[in-house]
Specification:
Layout: H1 6-9, H2 22-34, E1 40-45, H3 51-63, H4 77-84, E2 90-94, H5 101-112, E3 121-126, H6 133-144, E4 150-156, H7 164-167, E5 171-175, H8 180-194, E6 197-198, H9 200-210, H10 214-228, E7 231-232, H11 234-241, H12 246-257, H13 261-273, H14 278-297, H15 307-320, H16 322-334, H17 336-341, H18 345-357, H19 365-372, H20 426-438, H21 441-450, H22 453-458
Parallel strand pairs: 1-4, 1-5, 2-3, 3-4, 6-7
Helix pairs in contact: 3-4, 5-6, 8-9, 9-10, 9-11, 10-11, 12-13, 12-14, 12-15, 13-18, 14-15, 14-16, 14-18, 16-18, 18-21
The structure holds zinc ion.
Length: 464
């Protein structure tokens, strides 16, 4: 017997099994029970969160011999055929490969005839945003004057690419990314029912890697199961998903949090040189910081993890405390767009690590510019045209509210250093800030990544 992938075996057969989409399920079930469902729906959301599954369930629900009902029987010819994808009255169209107007003409011909057997002719258009403008125009007609026996269900991962005119004629349901804790629980449940071993921490890693997509999580679990012969543990996850062992990630967090920049960078480079993906390492550091923060705030709230992981993270939580960890996590998350979007993600990860190591003193560039305000950058020849010149880089009158610079001290005691009011000596502050910035590898690297603006304001010796 051939192996059937988990996503298929465990595809929901009832709305109640549609996982992690309670609001959508409630809306659809209420409408079905009250007999007030619309003639056109637009399901939007991330891939793999249940849009197509919900569309098929809705098709079953309206056409079941016992329906329309929120609980289709699953046994009548109509239900069975929808499940198999062979129903003559439920037609699935892939918007990506049927984009043109001819396809829509054919569709509209289908619309002229009543359903062959069932109550409704259901037209499910997947990836509807891929249709051409002409195709949308042709669709519009049928949405404006819908034949009573037609039910449209559009699904898209990119709702904003669907024309307003279409959106406004549909009932829109947004499918949310599914929380990693929910996915983890689901994976463990499936593993138990399928009778294979899945370590709790491995399930948590898979859930994190799936980033809200249940289907992705189940596909990863398929891969792992094939790799690890029904005994899926952390080592298997590390091999297949490329997730670094938690000991490495925790060690990295510890040295960076302690301000040991050189050790931290060496660890990052070791990992990258060993083939570790920069964005995976970034994500794992974020997970460790988050889990440690929860443990520091209230262990009851912490994500589920194995005892061994918990001991490691508890150590981090106790070493640094909630406020510093919260600040570090904030700093780390600020770098997300950079690490995920950068052409050179490895450099971006290094910048993020440097900023984390300097967490007691790093402030947002905007705050820093506002604080130093006096040194304009427009005439600086060394800066080059930065793509992200913030408006605040123009000359501003020197104000006396510059926050004091923290002088490179990275002890945890300095954690909650707030910008201090300094009634006197603002100029001194400015210059010490500038000195610090010019020797701050984080600022220099950030400059390389972000463009020249930070360098431009770092020194008051270049002509301003
Ligand atoms: Zn039925």
């Amino acid at each position: 017997m051939t192996y059937q992938v988990l996503a298929r075996t465990w595809r929901p057969k009832q709305f109640s099994e549609l996982f992690g989409q309670d609001a959508v399920v409630q809306t659809l079930c209420n409408a079905l029970n009250a007999g007030t469902f619309g003639h056109a729906y637009l399901f939007s959301g991330l891939r793999g969160v249940g849009k197509t599954t919900a569309a098929r369930l809705l098709a079953k629900a309206v056409n079941c011999v016992e329906g329309p009902t929120a609980e289709p029987c699953g046994e009548c010819v109509s239900c069975l055929e929808v499940a198999e994808g062979s129903s003559i009255d439920v037609i699935e169209i892939d918007g990506a490969s049927n984009r043109g107007i001819d396809d829509v003409r054919e569709l509209r011909e289908l619309l002229q005839f009543r359903p062959t057997r069932d109550r409704y002719r259901v037209l499910i258009v997947d990836e509807v945003h891929m249709l051409t403008r002409e195709a949308f125009n042709a669709l519009l007609k049928s949405l404006e004057e819908p034949p009573p026996y037609i039910l449209w269900i559009f699904a898209t991962t990119e709702r904003l690419k669907v024309p307003e005119t279409i959106q406004s004629r549909c009932q829109q349901l947004e499918f949310r990314p599914v929380g990693s804790e929910l996915i983890r629980g689901r994976l463990e449940e499936i593993a138990a029912k399928e009778g294979f071993t899945l370590a709790q921490s491995a399930a948590a890693s898979i859930a994190a890697a799936a980033e809200g997509s249940v289907r992705d999580a189940l596909s990863l679990l398929d891969q792992l199961r094939a790799f690890a012969s029904d005994d899926v543990d952390d080592a298997a996850v590390a091999s297949v998903l490329g997730v670094p062992p938690i000991e490495i990630t925790v060690r990295l967090v510890e040295v960076l949090a302690a301000g040991q920049i050189a050790d931290g960078l060496a660890l990052v480079r070791d990992q990258l040189a060993g083939g570790q993906d920069a964005s995976v390492l970034y994500r794992e550091v974020g997970r460790v910081l988050r889990a440690a923060l929860f443990l520091a705030v209230d262990p009851e709230l912490a994500p589920v993890m194995s005892e061994a992981h918990r001991a490691l993270l508890l150590n981090v939580a106790e070493s640094f405390g909630a406020d510093p960890l919260s600040r570090m996590l904030g700093l780390w998350l600020e770098q997300e767009a950079l690490v995920r979007g950068a052409g050179n993600r490895e450099l971006a990860l290094e910048v993020a690590s440097l900023r984390l190591a300097r967490w007691p003193s790093v402030r947002r560039v905007e705050d820093w510019l506002a604080a130093t305000g006096s040194t304009g950058s427009d005439s600086d020849s060394g800066s080059g045209p930065g793509p992200t010149d913030p408006p605040s880089s123009t000359k501003q009158p020197k104000s006396s509210q510059g926050p004091a610079a923290t002088k490179g001290n990275t002890s945890a005691a300095d954690a909650q250093k707030e910008p201090q009011e300094e009634p006197a000596g603002a100029d001194e502050n400015d210059s010490s800030l500038a000195e610090e910035a010019s020797s701050d590898p984080g600022v220099v690297l950030a400059t390389r990544v972000l463009g020249g603006d930070v360098v431009a304001v770092r020194s008051d010796g270049d002509g301003s």
